[in-house]
Amino acid sequence: MFAMITPLADLLLSPDDMAAVDRDAAASGIDSYQLMEKAGQAVAASALRHFPEALRYVVLCGPGNNGGDGYVAARALRQSGVEVGLFHVGDPRRLKGDAARAFADCPIEGEAIRNYAPRPGDVAIDAIFGAGLSRPVPDEVTAVVARTAEAEVPVIAVDLPSGVDGRSGHVLGAAFHAERTVTFMTRKPGHLLLPGRDLCGALEVFDIGIPARIVRAHSDGMIAENTPAQWQEKIPSAGTDTHKYKRGHLVVFSGGPSATGAARMSAMAGLKAGAGLVTIASPEDAMAVNAGMLTAIMLHTVEDDASLREWLADRRLSTFVLGPGFGAGEKARRFCLALADRHLVLDADGITSFRDDPQILFDAFAEGPTRLVLTPHEGEFARLFPDIAADGALSKVDKARAAAARAHAAIIYKGADSVIAAPDGRVLINANAPPWLATAGSGDVLAGIVGGLMAQGAPAFEAAAAGVWLHGLAGQRAGKGLTAEDLVASVTPF
């Protein structure tokens, strides 16, 4: 579990866990209909607050409790004096429990959802399925999704846009693209994982009054949003007695004379992240190129694995980055395996070098504390973990978690929704990365930041998570149109 108590706002519960929270809240004596009442009222308030110009609020109600929230919202909107249209999936007279009561209390006569024809000035409230959907949406809902999108009707989703899997963020056939989503108590992974995150629009988390102890009882504490609260206490901070050797020595391997830039980007990022010393390990034929471009970063000749092993007699060389611009192949494999007793961030070409036999890599780092950080993007992930990548039933969280356990490594499964996983099952989903981070050299900078944090003594998982977050923060600071050079300049340590 995460060392600190995760704030409720950062917690992520699966749809099944949230359903269990609702059941336990009712069993504890809390009036479950009053919870539905608060949820529906919150949705109505959001609609009126953010879309006061609407000529008609159209509430689309499903066959379960999400629909019940919709019937409450429709009643609240009617009571406020605005025009309300109501359309339902299935026969609402067959609803049960709180949803049946919400339908009975709603004074608006609804129509079948197939009859909804968007009009100019409509704002739609999607209360059809929410987060609990596990199968493709029915054809009549697919048709409404298409008509609503074609008419450019703004959508407010209740809990999660219908058609988005709350566990994985995947689209189940078709899904509304909401401008706003109102969810309750805490979020689901599908609120942060793509494409679900984009389909949610602006997200509001509304406290409907379920005690935090009940919510936390159904969280295993193993998954959350990637924020400083999850790892900051494990990231070393500089004290008054610090010196460069206490802040660690990071080594970044350079490629040949025509492929040195990536290593320099990584090295400078590690230095900016707080490493006390950074050295580029360069082949002889690239020494002149690197020397002409380096100032604060040191340079050391490493021609082959024999010279590497000789240099490794210096135990102060604790942390290494291998991959950026290095070239894939036998040399990368030999260097990596020579570093099995050190801390290693393996990126890019380093990852690809093990595509034919990844188990050699995993076996080398299998014993003892986690020392290896892998930073694959989608394609590199599939090279190391082809069976996991091909399993369509797994979410990105599931895949990263399985990969971390197999490799005994901290995994940064990169993307706009990067997932960071530890071998013990802890997972963080990152959400602070701006889209303009997708640029050449961005991954090299990330590898260097993670390496710089590990060199200072941060554990592999916490260094990986903090590195991803700092990388996103640097991207925000650098702004649109950034280059990798801009990104490095925007990296700041804690």
TrEMBL record:
Database matches in Pfam families? Carb_kinase (PF01256), YjeF_N (PF03853)
The domain of life is Bacteria
Q: Does the keyword Transmembrane apply?
A: no
What keywords are annotated for this sequence in UniProt?
Answer: ATP-binding, Isomerase, Lyase, Metal-binding, Multifunctional enzyme, NAD, NADP, Nucleotide-binding, Potassium
- Residues annotated as binding AMP: K414, G415, A416, D417, S418, G443
Cite the binding residues for (6S)-NADPHX.
Answer: 65-69, 130-136, 159, 262, 325, 377, 444
The protein's required cofactor(s) are namely:
K(+); Mg(2+)
Carries keyword Lyase? yes
Give the record's GO biological process terms.
metabolite repair; nicotinamide nucleotide metabolic process
Residue ranges occupied by any YjeF N-terminal domain in the UniProt entry? 18-216
Which purpose does this protein serve, as stated in its record? Answer: Catalyzes the dehydration of the S-form of NAD(P)HX at the expense of ADP, which is converted to AMP. Together with NAD(P)HX epimerase, which catalyzes the epimerization of the S- and R-forms, the enzyme allows the repair of both epimers of NAD(P)HX, a damaged form of NAD(P)H that is a result of enzymatic or heat-dependent hydration.
Assembly mode: Homotetramer.
Please state which protein family the record places this protein in: Belongs to the NnrD/CARKD family.
Protein name stated in the entry: Bifunctional NAD(P)H-hydrate repair enzyme
